[in-house]
Structures are given as C-alpha cells and as structure tokens.
Amino acid sequence: MSSASSTTSGAAKPASTRAKPANKWEQAADWTDGRLGIYSLAKANLRKIFPDHWSFMLGEICLYTFIIIILTGVYLTLFFKPSMGEVIYDGSYVPLKGLPMSEAYASTVDISFEVRGGLLVRQIHHWAALVFVAAMLVHMLRVFFTGAFRKPREINWVFGFLLLVLGMFDGFFGYSLPDDLLSGTGIRFMEGAILAVPLVGTYVQMFLFGGEFPGHDIVPRFFTIHVLLIPGIMLGLLVAHLILVFYHKHTQWAGPGKTEKNVVGMPLMPVYMAKAGGFFFLVFGLIAVISAIATINPIWSVGPYRADQVSTDAQPDWYMGFSEGLIRVMPGWEIGLWGHTLNLGVMVPLAIFPLVLVSIAVYPFIEGWITGDKREHHILDRPRNAPVRTALGAAWISLYLLLLVAGGNDLFATHLHLSINSVTYFVRVGFFVVPVVTFIVTKRWCLGLQRRDKEKVLHGRETGVIKRLPHGEFIEVHAQLPQKDLHKLTAHEQPQPFELPAETDENGVARKAGVLTRTRAKLSRGFYGEGSQIPKPTSEEHHEITSGHGHH
Question: pTM here?
C-alpha cells in the first residue's frame, strides 16, 4: 500500500518545464505575480493603442499639473501653520517686523524668505494650480466641440466636470490660506454671498466661520478642506476617469482605416509612455521656469489681513472672476418679504451660478435626448460639422469672457480711463446681446466652412495655374484632393431631425403629441433641420464633375 501510494503521489506532480528564475529580482517578480496577477494585467493593458494628436495632450497636462500640485503641496504642509493665533512677526523680512499677524500669515512669509526653496515651491504650487484649471477648461472645450462626450462617455464628462468645479473651489480655498489682506478680502466677499442666502445664510456663516467674521477657525477649516477633503475626492474621480478612458478606448479623428470599432495609433508601452514621460518633465520644467521669473501672490506686499481694511485692486483668480462678475453686474435690488429683506443683488447671481454649472454637466444627456442618438461614438466630429453645438459653445465662451470683464470693471475703468458705470452698463446689455450675436455668427461661419469643404470635394483645390481654352476662355486649373482628404471631408454623418408622429394612428384614432415630444421635435429641427447643415456632396455628384462634365 505504501508503494502504491507513493507511485500515485509521484504521478500527480509532473516535472515542471518552466525555467528557474535567473536571479532574485525575477524570483521576486514571480512571487508578486503569483499573488497579484500583475503580469496578466500588464500584458492586457500595456499594449493598449492610443491615437496621436496634439489636442489629446490637453488631458495629459491636467494629469501632470495635478501631480505637481500634490508634490509641492506636501512640501508646503511641512512648514505651513494653519492657525489664526496672533503672533508678532520677528522674521527676516524687515518691512513686517513688529507687526501683529496670524500664525498662518507668518509661516507663509517664513516659507517665502527663510525655507530653502520655499518661495519657488510656493510659486510652482500656485502656477500649477492655475495651469491645472486652465487645462481642464480647455480640455473640456475640446471634448465638447468634438462631440467626445457622446455615448458611452457621458459619465466621464460628468467626472471631468466635477474635477473642474472642485479644482476651482480648491484653488479658492488654497489662496485664502495665507490670511493676507488680499485673500481676506476674498473671504469677506464669500461671507457676504453666504449671508444673502435666504433663511439659512446666517446659520451657514456661523457654522463655517465658527462665530462672527473673521472668527478663529476659518483658516484651519479651509486647510482641512484644501489639503484632505477636496484632493481626496479629486483623486478618486481622476482614477475613475482614467479607468473609463481605458475601458471605452480613446476617441480619434476621422481618417482612412479609422472606424468606430478600432483605434489607430501607438502602443502604451514603450512608445506612448516614453513620450508621456518626456512631456511630464517638459510641463514641470516650463511651470518651474514661469515660477522662477514671474511673481504670483506676493503676500508680503499687501500685509496681513485686518477686518477694518480692504485691499485695493482686489481681484480673484481668473477662474473665479466670472462669479464675481455676475454679482458686480447685477443691480443692487432688495425686496421685503414677510418681515425679511431679500438681497436680490447677490441672491440672483448665486442662483444663476449653479444653474450654469449644472447645464454644463447635463448637456450630453440633453443633446442625446434631442437627437435620439443611442449609438456609440468613437470618431470625433469636426466642430464645423456640428454648427449648433459649436455655436452654443462659442456663445458660452463669449458670456464667460464678458463676465470676466464685469469682475474687473474697476480695473478696466481706471486703466482705460472710462467710467465704471459705463463699463457696468455695457456688460449688462452685453449679457443678453453678446451670446446671441456670437451664436449667430459662429453658426454661419460653420456653415460657410461646410460649403467650402463641399466645393473642395467637388472641384478640388485651387492650384493658381491659369489656362486658356481653345475658344479663348481663361480658367483656373483645379487639382483633385487626395483620397485621405476626401475621406476627412466626407466622413461625418448628417442625422435627420426627429419628426412628430402622425396625427392619427393606423386605425384613424387621433394621436396627440405631448409637450415634451413637441419640444424635442423643435429642438431637433434646430440641430439638424434646414439651415443647420449643408448637405454633403454625393458620390454621384463627385463622379459627374470629375468625369469631365462641367469640371475645369
């Protein structure tokens, strides 16, 4: 029995044909892969294909600046003291010696003048935050104008939107931490906006500040929000965003060999990773150079915050300027209601601000409902081929820039020697006029570009060569476009607008369309109806002209 048992046991363990690990590193890699499955995961994803186009680098800039912010932020937290306890400054910056100030302000001044590399790191941190928000905004504009938000990427659009909004507010909390006169003025502005909220405004203000303004808790609370809460949420959203990019595959521009079912480009390893690594250091180096030569937020020049002073020329960072513009352009109206005063001059802009943000977040779902398009899209639109969407985006940009002007109306008035009232009234009128004019002009511009594309497909490009025909007529010789250019100019789809159902069904019974159905039909005609797109040239038209009938 013992012999048989031994034989059976030996048969169950065939000799392994796998080579032994060459060294300890390979042995460690085998041990790790046997427990985590890293090799299989890497094999499936490291050869993933990514298209190559400069516009796709905008998302990479967002990622790299976020990493820079985290690295520099960790360094700054080692020296920053988030406390509003009062101290007498006795540091190396002579103009502030002997002044009372908060520990937050004093520690920021010490970081700037006494910590080795502290000022440069502060500058890099602030500039990277500005570039981060700017890159996210431009990246979302690229996604919007090219239609990259369509199915199956609607959720990723929402993630990107949340990252943008959280980045804006985290930037506000960050530049409020030094407790200098400029940032204190911004916090005072925020407090006034909170107090304008009906019913709960005073309670929110007392909870946030821990008492009457400025209180003793606002800097520690902002520090916790800025360092822990918002970055933690953003990191989770960023990971989810990248996972969805991998899962859904990357979008690509139309071209020969590119379809909705493939991706043409380079593998993630080693080509794309090498380029991405170089691009990261390029971004880091450029931000470091800017930070070394362009001063930003010199808190020592304005002094510590005092509640009885207001910093002149106080302006928020550009990404929050439009929110202040909404309040500056709004008339200072107040109404009494049930024994309470409602400050409409602040409350109305506060209501418009989140509505604008929410409309951006839900736009992919609105367009999907209007068009009724349920298909997956991996080929990008050229902005000219979606005139209404492009015009809407341009109108939003024009309104944003106009509100930035409103947010700095005092500086425009003083620097251009204008009346501040004239600047304010101009913005008030422009608030209703400029987006409409921008929409109309942009839409017509897109249609004009579509007509030009159609002419190029049918008649080719102009060569500048003038030819005289036998009967004396002079013509310009046109050269036919290469096949790849013809594909690029004709690959886009032209959906038909949604039509209302028949007024009666097959049995002759009246069928009444609801309000939502009629609204959807009208909006669909606005998107795809006559006057919103130029019909593409057909193959028959192209063949007729290129075969010699009417072609020069």
Answer: 0.87
